[in-house]
Amino acid sequence: MLLSAIIFGLLGSFHCIGMCGPIAFMLPVDRQKPVKGFFQIVSYHLGRLFTYSLIGLLFGFLGKGFYLFGFQQQLSIIIGVLMILTIIFPKISHKLSLSKKISTIILKIKSALGKELKKKGNDTFFTIGFLNGFLPCGLVYMALLGAIATSNAFLGSLYMFLFGLGTIPLMTAFVYLGNFTKISFRNKIQKVIPILVIFIGVFFIIRGLGLGIPYISPSPVLEITDSTFIECH
Predict the structure, then answer these.
(1) Treating both helix axes as pointing N-terminal to C-terminal, what angle do 72-88 and 183-209 enclose, rounded to 10 degrees?
(2) What is the rounded CA–CA span in Å between residue 189 and residue 168?
(3) May I ask which residue range the UniProt record assigns to the signal sequence (predicted)?
(4) 233 or 192: which carries more pLDDT confidence?
C-alpha cells in the first residue's frame, strides 16, 4: 500500500506542476548562491512534507476509528469505490464544493502565502511549503483516502509523507528549469493518472474483500471472545 503512495506522488507531480508549479517557480530562491538556493528549496519541500504528514496523521487516526468499530474492510471497499467513481464520473468531485468556512480559511492561507512569497528570509521557505500543503488539490484528496485506508495514525502520516516525497523530483526540477516539459508529454502523463487512481481503487476493494491473499488481501482476523472455549474429549 505504501508503494502506491510513492507512485501516486511521482506521476501526480505532473499534475502538481499545473497546480503548485507557479508557487514553486515564484520562490525567492537565491540563484547567485547555488548551495544556499538548494537548501532553501529543501526547506520548502520540508514544509510541504510536514503539512502532508500532519494531515495524514489526522486522517489515519480517523481511519483507526473505523478499524476499532470493525469497519476496516468495509472502509477499504468504500474508499476504493469512491476513487473509481470520481474518475469515471468527474462531475461528482466537481459538485463537492467546499463549505463557506473552509473557503474562507483557504482564502486566508492564500493571502498569507502571497505575503510570504514577497519575503526573502531563509525561514520563509519552510512557511511557504507549510502553507502550500494546505491548498486544495484533487490529487491530495485521493492520497488522503489512502491515508484513511491505512487505519493507523502513523501509517497515515507515512503514506502522505511518501506521497509528498514522490512529488519532490519534478517540483525541484521545475524550480530550476521552469516549464521544461512539453505540453504533449504532460498531457500523456495526465491521461495515465486516472488509470493509476482506478488501479489503486481496485486494489483497495480487493484488499477489503479479505480474499486470503498475503499482503494484498489478507483474511480478516477473527477475535477470540469470552464465549469462545475449547472442548476436550
Answers:
(1) 150
(2) 17
(3) none
(4) 192
Under 8 Å CB-to-CB from 158, ≥6 apart: which residues?
Answer: 2, 53, 56, 150
Amino acid making up residue 93 = S
Q: Any idea of the CA torsion for 118, 121, 123, 127, to the nearest 10 degrees?
A: 0
93-145 pLDDT, tens digit each: 555 555 677 778 888 988 998 899 888 787 899 999 999 999 877 788 888 88
Contact (CB, 8 A) for 215 and 98: no
User: What nine digits make up the cell of 27?
Assistant: 520562490
Rg of the chain in Å (alpha carbons) = 20
Please, are residues 77 and 208 in contact by the beta-carbon 8 Å criterion? Answer: yes
Q: Where are the domains of the chain?
A: 2-70+97-179
| Chain mean position to CA 113 | 20
Nearest to 200 by CA among 87, 65, 62: 87
- Say if CB 168 and CB 11 are below 8 A apart: no
**66 within 8 A of 151, measured Cβ to Cβ:** yes
